[in-house]
Every structure is written in structure tokens, then in C-alpha cells.
Amino acid sequence: MDLIVLSLVLLVLFLALCIFAFSRRSDNGVKLPPGSFGWPIMGETIEFLFGKPENFVGDRMKKYSPDIFKTHILGEKTAVICGPNGHKFLFSNEQKLFTAFRPHPMQKLFRSYQTQSSAPAPQTTRNDETKVIRSPGFLKPEALVRYLGKMDSITQQQLQTSWEGRDEIKAFPLCKTITLTLACRFFLGIDNPERIAGLVSNFDDITLGMHSITLNIPGTIFYRANKAATAIRKELLAVIKEKKTAMATGAPMQDILSHMIVASDPSGRFMPEAEIADKIMGLLTAGYSTVATTMTLFMKYVGERPDIYKKVLEEQLEVSASKKTGELLEWDDMQKMKYSWNVICEVMRFNPPLQGTFREALTDFTYAGYTIPKGWKVYWTVSTTNMNPEYFREAEKFNPSRYDEGDVSIPYTYVPFGGGPRMCPGKEYARLAILTFVHNVVKKFNWELMVPNEKIIGDMMPSPEKGLPIRLHPH
């Protein structure tokens, strides 16, 4: 028995020494930010993933510094830079001090083409999906305006098929079907609701797996995500082959997938099909979950506030009154939806559809008196300002009018889409998709929440705990 006790004591001492050495370790003697690297190997990943990220960040800001702290998450030494000054610093130094970085789970899910060939994979720029869609201007307003009518008709069709005639629905799954249908039509040029609906659960699994422990054994989040990615990749490869066949017949193609198929790099190399599939999967994931979440939480917060619903409805009826019967939405209509967009902005302030993203330090740099070494990761998060009463009066109050009252006048306090050169390229696409949904849903229905004060759960991407069950009342 004494031997067992002695062994346990020695084990505890060994672990304590490891933790002490790990947390005290510095890089080349530089003055690192305050904070803790946590446990050996795992660091503070468990606390980051399984607590709320905003709590993880907020607690450490109070404990260490409101400007910056260090941690070790998802296998990387990481500096978390906080507050509006931190946002400005990060946005102003893209590609000077930082470059985009994908955590290891995302690399494994969206970079399969780099390991499928025995030949070395060509060097690719991180996050080069966004370069592909920025270059031909697919997501610029002048390109999106051509798609707006289709976006409106698809939304109407989805509401008619899955919402009308039903007394009770779960809003979140149906919002996900709408957004995935829109994304597949826009990115892939396919318009087959049945084919698309079958992919929803796979995209859900990928979304959860993007920020998870990369333990690929049955029963884990990452295992399910990896399995889902394989299924989606298989479907996308089939779509790519169909698209190539159609393009060979001279069929007009105006979607992003067609552009990826014909695009080449300076050496004349075309993208392999496996690479196209992975890049498209990344785009679909980005254009799906965040938009669906915002639509759903609009239903939640407006369902709690009849006064806000009334104002949104009045605005949308004014838009309809200026149009002929059956006429689809146009660009000018979207500019009239100012209050509706204020409501969406407040939804995103309360529950950002994406909590944050990662960068990698290209060189040693100093911030707030501390040095962040080259190769470290930098975590950027909206949660250090969104609910801070220092920047938003009555921050806990849902108040869409604050955006007309100068309550967001302090620069870099409200940045749900990021900023600088890496501002979300899909911002305008998301705005149009969400406002199109708002326009159609409030004109057709009033609704009441069946689970008042339903809890919002999730780590990096929030969702209503029970899928937001609502009772519909058609107009």
C-alpha cells in the first residue's frame, strides 16, 4: 500500500513539474504575454472547446490583461489579442505581421487533396478559396445583384414547401436547408433540393469538427466530421464531373465551381478535382452555418419582441407595396430594409455566428509591451467587445435602434465580419440572403416561441438547444 501511495505522490509531483516547466517556458528569453500554457500537450484546449469561448477569453482578460494573454490551444502556442485596439492592430497588419491560419482539425478536413497523391502537393496559399472567389468578383454587389431574384424565388419556394400549412416547426433545421440550398445554387450551380437536403447533417458534423480534438476514433466529434467530409467530398466529385460534361456541350456556366474548373495558375496548371472538391466544401461550410444561425436567431429574438416584429413587418410591407405582383426583389429593395438590417446586426452582436479566427505570426512582433514570437498563432475574437458595457450602452438589452443612435461610433468595437484585407468576402452575400429570408418570412407569418428563453449552446458557432420550435400563424 505504501508503495502505491509513494507512486501516486511521485506521479503528482512529476505532473506538477511538467506543468510548471511548460507554463514558464519562454521563447528565446523574450517578454511573453501573461497567461498560462496549461497542461502538457493538451494545453488549455479542453477549457477552450468545452466552455464558452467568450467566457474563456473574458476570464483570462480579467485575470491577466485586458489587452493580450497567452495560452496553448488546439496544439498551438497562441496569443489572444483583445479589445478594439487589438482588432485595429490585427486588421491593419494582415500579410505584414500575420497570415491566415487554419487550426489542425480544419487542415485535416479541408486539405485532403494534399495527402491523396504520392507526389508532393504544390504549394498553396492558406485560405486560397477566398482568393478564388475574390478575383472574378463573384461576391461583389454587381455580381450578386444578378443572383438576387433567384435567391428570392428559392427562399419563397422553400418557405412554401416546408413552412406553409404547418402549425409547428423547428426553425433551425429548416433555416439550414434554405441556406444550404442557396449556397449550392450559388457556388455549384445545382438546384436540386432533395440532393441538397441530404447533405445537411453532414455539414452540421463538419461545422462541429472544425474546432475539435483531432482524435479520429469512432464516437468522437472529429471522427464524425471526417466521415461527413468524406461523404460530401464524394458528392462534390460527382457534381464536378457532371459540371465538366455540361461545360463541354457549351452550356452557360456562371457559378463559382465553373470558374474553379477552368482557372489555372501562372504556370498553366489546372486545379485537380480533389482540390476543387475540398475548396468548394470549405466555401459551402462558410456560406451555410453562419447564415443559417443568424436567420434562426432572428426568429428567436424577434419572436420575443412583438414591438420589433411590428416595425420589421411595416418596413417589409412598404417594400412590397412598391413592387408589382409577383415581381422579385431587386438591389434597390435591399437598401430600403434599414431597420431590418439593424435587427440582424443586433442579433449578431448578441450571438456572433462565428466567435473568432486564427492567424499565424510571420515575424516576431511587439504588442502592448509584450513580444509574440514568429510562428505563434494569434486568436482574434469578437467577444471582447460585443457585450462590453464600456462600448455599448445597456449591452444586455436587445436594441436595434442603437445603430441609428450612434451607439457603435467607437471604431473596431463591432466587427462581426472581421476587417481589413481579410474582411469576410461573403459579407454582402450573407446580407442579401438573410434580408431576403426576413422579407419573405415576416410577410407570410407571425410566430411564437414554444420554448421561451431557449438556451443558446455551442462553442465556436452558437445554436438553439432544441432547434427553436415555433408555432406559426399565417397572415
UniProtKB/TrEMBL annotation:
Presence of keyword Transmembrane helix: yes
Gene3D superfamilies: Cytochrome P450
Cell compartments where the protein resides: Membrane
Chain segments annotated as transmembrane: none
Keywords from the named record: Heme, Iron, Membrane, Metal-binding, Monooxygenase, Oxidoreductase, Signal, Transmembrane, Transmembrane helix
PROSITE patterns: CYTOCHROME_P450
Cofactors, names only: heme
InterPro entries: Cyt_P450, Cyt_P450_CS, Cyt_P450_E_grp-I, Cyt_P450_sf
Binding site for heme: C424
Keyword hit for Oxidoreductase: yes
GO cellular component, one term: membrane
Signal peptide residues on this chain, from the entry's feature table: 1-23
GO molecular-function term, one example from the UniProt record: monooxygenase activity
Topological relation to the membrane, as annotated: Single-pass membrane protein
One BP term from GO: sterol metabolic process
Family membership noted in the UniProt record: Belongs to the cytochrome P450 family.
UniProt protein name: Beta-amyrin 28-oxidase
